[in-house]
Design goal:
Radius of gyration: 35 Å
Largest sheet: 4 strands, parallel
Mean pLDDT: 90
Structural class: alpha+beta
RNA sequence: GCGGGCGUGGUGGAACUGGUAGACACGCUGGAUUUAGGAUCCAGUGCUUCACGGCAUGGGGGUUCGAGUCCCUCCGCCCGCACCA
């Protein structure tokens, strides 16, 4: 330890090699210790790791190393979310095969990750594009298909006519394909779906049990599932009713407003609309116009409520002789309820806009509190608040809730002549999950289309359906579909000529069960029941909040579907979830407004300038790191310059882990200074330590104080890490470090302090080990230990050192602190009062009068009320 | 529009169930040491006052012996959803 400067690069490589050689982080499935499964969201192999990965994996590694030290059998694996579009884009742009591109990227990123010193079990690594992985995924698909959790139906999709592919909603920008720029069309295609709605209710109610999830995420999922209770009503047509439609079915959550109904509206996609359009050009034109309407945010926000009268009318269920015209309206969604509504303009803004446009009646039936029933009317703002029902016959005077119930029970008892049928119904906004993608680089859907036998699952013995390697990306569309031979197969059932499904699965399918596969990554079935059920659920899952809905909801569905098909025993995959914040950085712009990389910018006395051109640079807002704004810092460069421990320490310091952290040079340098300071301080002390005792010598108050500070820190850091409050744990370690520096000069003359210091430095090394594992190993070895600190147990805090006999009690007068007194911890209330009243500042405020009241909160505070 | 969250020094942020506001760090100021340092060490650092003290957790009001924390209200910022009947 003579070297005053810590050489991170040399040291980190050395310890990483030792860990790997000794297999320190390899996890076995038959370990008798209690299990703990730590998982960070696995990366997409884009080619290079970014700071978000560094932050995510640092946090996970702290948890993994901490729990390993606490005596758990920790599973901490890593893999690759490796299918997806970017590989195909690279293939088109750079003429490189998606497989080559992906595996090259994985190799590069694995090397980068290894430089971070993460305590991962690399033996369990896999990529979702590995044949073995998607083979098992195909088995899952077939199992889901067998129990009807996977199915095929026609569905509206965004179709890019140039690239000849389906686009996700996120890939449609202002109505145009993000790559081709072509106007996106709405097309009906037959697509594969997972029946996530089979679990709507369970996915919703089970959220309450996810106590170790952020409330925010649970709420987002709740809103996404969107449960609402109401009635399904069948309105009778004024004869003649259209063929095949004896009644008009609607769903409503507001049956209390039935007396205010003034029209009916069908979705443009409603079956009845389609039928009417066949013989009515106006309707047909209107439907076509609606189809052209984009699905973009802007299009919906600015869309005018429009419709066209169908010529049909229905009877009002309660009001004799009242007839309601039936329209087709652009704001009615086919996907929700029955695709038809009754319109009550007074109490729904959309209905009101529509009614005003077409001159329909607006009858208020909910009276705001205190309003005059004779004069209250709705103008151009619908009344949607609470109130009392009026203008509504038998509902008059009721609350909204009572009126809903009254209508429901009356309809159920069939007391209404004009309603053919009514039933209570629960609807969800959640839709089934469309998984078909017209893409090459994904898991092939293992079915065969036979002209005789229809859809035939690929027999399990014929699995895997392997992606062909010889493909070309010269033309738009799905290369699998264009492949000369791949799709031509014989029907497994009848042996006749048949066609292989050329759609592949959404890559979200791949990431919906990888956590289960990590428990038995080489099994010849998707999971080994004994093993997977011993490991799941994941105890702590860590990742970005951007996955709050899709990935996390899909994974919750998958667990249920895998449970239904016997692959796992749990319904909930992730017991604890933590969503970390993003990494941000300042942005920089040159004189012409172009974005600049941080390394292009020089901060001089004369202002901020460009390193090469010398032009003035504008410092812009702080944004999350992104390639487009160039405000990125490459983790490899940081690790090369400062070492992984510095990068890790910085990521854990100062900012709470769930908030965005700003990456700054000053911050990194500060973290690095601490690494050096720690190294220097420990190095300066190693020769002076006394290993013959622990320093519990009553004759040395300095030793006792140091031991108290050490054990207090030990207890606090442990509980901070358990709560993932890494920034507080870091602050505690800084505090201990300051205490050590202050005590260091006394070690020479005080043998008890030298002994206490030995214990303190051992504990310090263990405290930093989860966060800066390389430095911790180096210090541990330097302190004379021959074990690996990575395999050492977390120390126990000595509880007798955590309580003080004498405490400092703040004394307030009228709630303001005026002084403090040092008193025995177990002093009686009378003693505390007497001591407080004896304080000079208190007396100054008392001014000779007796206090009105004295509040003593034991061991906390004294408040004298004058 | 609906739903949710957050506002604390120059900065990032501490403050457990209401109980010493500003821990810890960055930055800054002064000093020491050094050929030099973006290295290290020491001291200081919410605002205000010569001082006693006064004022301070987005603004205003309330509950309480006591409020950053609880309640009401207003302002500002951020996030999610988006015609869901």
């Amino acid at each position: 330890m003579a070297n005053p400067r810590y050489n991170a690069r040399e040291t980190e490589a050395r310890w990483q090699k030792i860990w790997a050689e000794r297999g320190v982080f390899r996890t076995t499935n038959d370990d008798p210790r209690p299990k703990y499964y730590v998982l960070e969201m696995f990366p997409y192999p884009s080619g290079r790791i970014h700071m978000g990965h560094v932050r995510n994996y640092t946090m996970g590694d702290v948890v993994a190393r901490f729990l390993r030290a606490k005596g758990y059998n920790v599973l901490h694996p890593m893999g690759w979310d490796a299918f997806g579009m970017p590989a195909e884009n690279a293939a088109m742009q750079n003429k490189v095969h998606p497989k080559t591109w992906t595996y090259d990227n994985i190799a590069a990123m694995r090397e980068q990750l290894k430089l971070m010193g993460l305590s991962l079990d690399w033996d369990r690594e896999f990529a979702t594009c590995d044949l073995d992985y998607y083979h098992q995924q195909q088995k899952l698909f077939l199992d889901f298909l067998a129990v009807d959790l996977a199915y095929r139906r026609k569905s509206k999709v965004n179709w890019d006519p140039v690239d000849q592919t389906v686009l996700a909603n996120e890939q449609v920008i202002d109505g145009r394909g993000w790559r081709s720029g072509a106007l996106v069309e709405q097309r009906e295609l037959t697509q594969w779906f997972f029946r996530i709605t089979a679990f709507s209710e369970d996915l919703l109610t089970a959220l309450d049990g996810l106590e170790r999830w952020p409330d925010k995420v649970r709420l987002m999922q709740k809103n996404w599932i969107g449960r609402s209770e109401g009635l399904r009503l069948r309105f009778a047509f004024i004869p003649p009713a259209p063929d095949d439609f004896p009644y008009l079915e609607v769903f409503t959550t507001r049956p209390d407003t039935l007396f205010g109904a003034s029209f009916m509206a069908l979705s443009p996609d409603h079956k009845l609309t389609e039928k009417l359009a066949e013989s009515n050009d106006k309707i047909a034109d209107f439907v076509a116009e609606c189809r052209r309407m984009g699905t973009s945010v802007e299009a919906i926000e600015t869309a005018e409520k429009k419709g066209v009268f169908t010529g049909l009318t229905v009877r009002h269920p309660f009001l004799k002789g009242v007839e309601l015209p039936v329209y087709v309206a652009n704001f009615v969604l086919m996907e929700y309820g029955s695709g038809a509504i009754f319109g009550c303009p007074a109490h729904d803004q959309r209905d009101l806009d529509f009614a005003r446009k077409y001159g329909l009646n607006v009858t208020a039936v909910v009276l705001p509190p205190g309003a005059d029933p004779n004069s209250f009317a709705v103008d151009d703002k619908a009344y949607v608040e609470d109130g009392t029902i009026f203008n509504s016959d038998f509902l008059n005077g009721m609350t909204i809730a009572d009126a809903k119930e009254a209508v429901a029970s009356r309809l159920e008892q069939r007391q209404v002549a004009n309603i053919a049928e009514a039933a209570r119904e629960v609807n969800y906004r959640l839709r089934d999950w469309g998984i078909s993608r017209q893409r090459y680089w994904g898991c092939p859907i293992p079915v065969i289309h036979c002209p005789e036998c229809d859809v035939v699952p690929v027999p399990e013995t014929d699995l895997p359906v392997e992606l062909p390697d010889d493909i070309d990306f010269d033309a738009p569309g799905n290369p699998l579909d264009r492949h000369p031979t791949w799709k031509h197969v014989d029907c497994p059932k009848c042996g006749g000529k048949a066609r292989r499904e050329t759609d592949t699965m959404d890559t979200f399918v791949d990431s919906s069960w990888y956590f289960a596969r990590f428990t038995g990554p080489r099994a010849d079935r998707p999971t080994e029941p004994d093993v997977v059920n011993a490991w799941l659920p994941v105890d702590q899952y860590i990742g970005g909040v951007e996955h709050a809905i899709l990935h996390l909801l899909y994974s919750r569905f998958f667990s249920r579907a895998m449970k239904a098909t016997g692959h796992v025993a749990v319904s909930e995959p992730f017991d604890g979830l933590f969503t970390q914040g993003m990494v941000t950085h300042e942005t920089y712009k040159g004189e012409d407004g172009r974005w600049l990389f941080p390394e292009e910018v020089v901060f001089g006395a004369g202002g901020t300038t460009h390193a090469e051109t010398g032009e003035a640079v504008t410092i812009g807002s702080i944004e999350s790191m992104s390639k487009s704004k160039k405000n990125v810092v490459d983790p490899s460069a940081i690790i090369t310059a400062y070492g992984a421990d510095t990068a890790r320490w910085f990521m854990l310091s100062d900012t709470p882990p769930d908030r965005d952290i700003q990456w700054t040079d000053a911050g990194v340098e500060g973290a690095h200074r601490f690494v050096q300071r720690l190294w220097r301080q420990v190095g300066a002390l190693t020769g002076k330590l006394d290993r013959s005792g622990n320093g519990s010598d009553p004759s040395s108050p300095a030793a006792l104080d140091l031991r108290k500070a050490t054990h207090r820190t030990l207890a606090a850091v442990g509980s901070d890490i358990e709560k993932l409050h890494f920034n507080r744990a870091v602050a505690r370690i800084y505090e201990l470090m300051n205490t050590i520096s202050a005590a260091a000069p006394g070690v020479d003359a005080d043998p008890a302090l030298a002994a206490a210091m030995a214990e303190t430095l051992d504990i310090l090394a263990k405290l930093i080990a989860p966060m800066m594992p390389h430095l911790a190993e180096e210090i541990w070895a330097g302190l004379g230990h021959e074990t690996l600190i990575s395999e050492e147990a977390w120390p126990e805090a000595d509880r007798s050192l955590l309580v003080e006999d004498m405490i400092v009690l703040p004394v307030q007068v009228n709630g303001k602190k005026r002084g403090e007194l040092t008193i025995a911890r177990d002093a009686s209330q009378a003693d505390v009062e007497a001591a407080a009243l004896a304080l000079e500042p208190v007396n100054r405020f008392l001014d000779g009068r007796p206090p009105r009241k004295i509040v003593v909160v034991p061991q906390r505070i004294v408040n004298v009320v004058v």
